[in-house]
Fold this sequence. Notes:
Strand order of the largest sheet: 1-3-2
CATH topology of the largest domain: Serine Threonine Protein Phosphatase 5, Tetratricopeptide repeat
Distance between the termini: 73 Å
Number of domains: 2
Strand content: under 5%
Shape: globular
Radius of gyration: 28 Å
Helix content: 55-70%
CATH superfamily of the largest domain: Tetratricopeptide repeat domain
Amino acid sequence: IAVCFQLYAYIDKGCIAKGLDIMDLMEELIWNKLSEEQQGFLLALSYFKIVSIQQIYALSEFNTLLEYEKEALLNPFIRYNEIEKQYEFHELFLEILISKRKSYGEEFERKCLTTAGSYYLSMGKPDEALSYFWKAKDFDLMLSLDLGSLILGYVDGKPFWEIAPYIANNCPSDIKKANILQMLQIAWALLLGNHINDFKKLMNEIEDFLENDNISNVKYLRAEWKLLFSYTYYPRLIEMTEILKEAEILFEGKNSRVILPNVPWNFCNYCPLAIFHLVSGDADKEAEAMDDYIALYSKLTNGHGSGADALFRSELSFYRGDLNKAEAYAYKAVYIAQSNKQSIVYLGATLHLAEIALEREDSTGWQNAMNSMGNITSFDSPNTSLIYYVIDILRGTLLNELKQLEKVSDWLKEDDYTSHGLLPGMALNVDFVKLNYLMHKGMHTKIIGISEILNLEEVKRHPFSYMLAAFVLAKCHLAIGEKA
């Protein structure tokens, strides 16, 4: 490239260029030779390393290439692929374009971004469109999308639930008021990301908006608000169900467009006993409350959480030692979950089928349960990577029990797993696998140290979870001679 530029310089000026690096030469000999129109045209394309002719038409708002555009594309650092009908920018030239684009100011960049986003939207790719609208910080365009199926996706390399607080706290009130359904979807994303204070603040704002009876579909929007509001009582099932009864009246037979059935249930936690069992000795009452809750909740959400009541009873029976009843409920949960494509419920039930097989020393049953976890790929999910992480956690649980520690996924052995884009609700399951792995490796003092960082006071609210944590810690203290 350097030799090429020196030849260009010699042709242009009759001498070799001195004291200039490659980027300086590219700017002087390529960029500065372009007209202002050509520069603006190429800058509009600069968000794409590869761009098709149809894409160029959409971005330039013409159905043909103008002469100055054709000339701009006849560039030694833009390669045309005749077969694919697309242009590819050389990385060095793209660097020049990006630096120049920034020099044109924020308004120009925003226009380029929103134009690119609108192109992707016209191509039926709302997830790509959202990334560009987000970069432009164009709240109107972001909220013009139906965000329900996008909230578990990635936006500009970040999980949607991580950018939701910015939208909730910075979007102007008038835009929020004009897009209440989308703001409810943002509120759901805040819940998924465990941004509880932001969730409560936004819900209060939306409640104020919904006091206006003249808002279109106000009754339906109030139903959606009630559905989300029930989560302020999570995981207290009786209180949640009472709120859902109010939502049911307002929905008038419609389903939620905020909580969609393909979003993993229970924030990706596959162990309802660990979350919804709150009072020691009340598990049977809680199972009945779960029956009532899931019957109503899954009805309003078109199947979200279906089978979780059977899974709860399967867990309860298993830990009481009634394997036959546990197995029957697990198969019931599997059937209902498959029928409604509920990945988390399905995986939780297969875990118990595997554990039941282990108790019975049934290697065939264990292998069948392990293999059936792979069937989850046929389920519709807006974020399959989350589901694969859940499968890793499940398998880690079983492999720990078999002491096949070398087969536990490497990321579960890491001290910090936060870079993997997990939902905060998955932390309890991850920590359980991690602590068991360390225990089987004989790293007892490390577990005791980690336990001081983990929020065990929070875990105490959940008797089953606390019992498991207490067993692990007790074993570690015994192992180092601390019987007291």
